[in-house]
Amino acid sequence: MTTAPLTATLRRLERASGALATRSVARMDDTLPWFRSLPADQRSWVTLVVQAGIGSLVQWMRSPVMRPKVTGDVFGAAPREMARSVTLQQALAMVKITVEVAEEQAGELAAPGEESELREAILRYSREIAFATAEVYARAAETRGAWDLRLQALLVDALLRGDPADALASRAAALGWTDLSPVAVVIGTAPSPATVTDSDQIVDSLVHTGRRAGLDVLAGVQGQRLVAVLGGADDPVRATQMLLAEFGPGPVVVGHAVPTLSGAPESARAAEAGWRAVAAWPAAPRPVAAADLLPERVLAGDTEARRRLVSDVYKPLDAAGPTLVETLSVYLDSGGALEGTARMLFVHPNTVRYRLRRIGEITGLVPTNPRDAFSLRLALAIGRMHGQS
Q: Which residues of 8-36 are buried (b: 16+ CB within 10 A; e: fewer)?
């Protein structure tokens, strides 16, 4: 290409910009199914974008060492709504079609003797505009990704605070939350050191790992804690096992499942209570359900755990009659001695075995298991105090 501007050709190209844009848009309509589905207002904006692109070509040909300014010179003609609705692949398809139409018309647009220079300029420009477009979308993706991470952190804070359901739903919708059910909240240690930059990487890695496992995940780093909201986890503990590598060392506590995101603050409260109390159970599995930490949560002053032990353990036993409560009390006081319990109750050991088995069926806790026996002893104590209040 010559270094001197193709003055006559540039004048012709400027005059023909409107016609070229119209032809380009008509071809898009014929060849791009997604373009035909665009609303009428966005299709009209595409015409202006294409015309701006041709104008940018003219300016670039006057000074080909300058790269096209895609945001201002080209996409600046379109509203932000359109820029968000057109993907990078679609934008490059628009560029390709516009270049094809311009190439086809090069013979008519170029002044005599300048046809080859115009075709070469169009080809060089198409390469520059494609690279510049990709850079614009890459920067937009980075900005959007950073904003999404901040919005996730705000949503996690709102969940832990117990904000109203409508506020949670609007923030989740902005993040593209698919509302998979059920939902559970998980709290663990963040990988260290959790600086601001590290926090973004930690959350991004956790979200991507969750997606590969078929989960919808929102997350945030709070100090040294990593909090995750899992959507679509029928078994939250098992789902969390697939994410353990994203957490730092130490316990990981899983709140109970709730039907929708609006109930997530309840799961978050349980996970937080379990997180505060899990240190009292050094042998706790990883991850551990907050419901399995009811005794430790009671010792830490969690009123919800007290209520659960009364409603889920003591009251069902009490409703089954005094025999089971008496048998359990004697069995625990005798240090778990089956024969000693039978002697104190004046019954056969097999009767004690049967009653202990019934206690397990009613409560889900096996008295012969030391861990479950601990929960049962607390349930008895709290239940008796509850009956006196």
A: ebbebbeebbeebbebbbebbeeeeeebe
Residue ranges of alpha helices (H) inside 300-348 are 303-309, 315-319, 322-333, 338-345
pLDDT of residue 261: 81
Beta bridge partners of 98: none
Which pair of structure tokens corresponds to residue 137? Answer: 């979308």
Q: Concatenated DSSP letters for 281-303? A: -TT--SSEEGGGGHHHHHHTT-H
Q: Please, what's the b/e burial string for 328-366 (b: 16 or more CB within 10 A of its CB; e: otherwise)? A: bbbbbebeeeeebbbebbeeeeeebeebbebbbeebebb
User: Which whole-number Å values give the CA distances from 194 to 43, 223, 252, in the listed order?
Assistant: 46, 7, 17
- Residue 191 in 3-state DSSP? coil
Give the pLDDT confidence score for residue 148 in this predicted structure: 59
Distance CA(301)–CA(203), nearest Å, equals 31
Segment holding 381, helix H or strand E? helix 370-388
Structure tokens given for 54 = 């041709």
Q: What would the two tokens of residue 333 be?
A: 């006081």
Mean pLDDT for back-to-back runs of 10 residues, the chain (389 residues) = 63 84 88 84 76 76 61 50 64 80 84 83 77 63 53 71 67 65 92 64 87 87 88 92 93 94 88 95 96 96 94 94 94 94 95 96 95 95 77
Q: Residue 29, by phi and psi: left (phi above 0), alpha (psi -120 to 50) or beta?
A: alpha
User: Which of these, 64, 133, 69, 57, lies nearest to 101 by C-alpha position?
Assistant: 57
Residues contacting residue 95 through CB under 8 Å, at least 6 positions apart: 53, 126, 129, 130, 133
Supply the pLDDT for residue 315: 94
Which residues neighbour 300 within 8 Å (Cβ) at sequence distance 6 or greater?
273, 276, 277, 280
Q: Using the 8-state DSSP alphabet, how is residue 67 labeled?
A: P
Look up the pTM and report it: 0.61
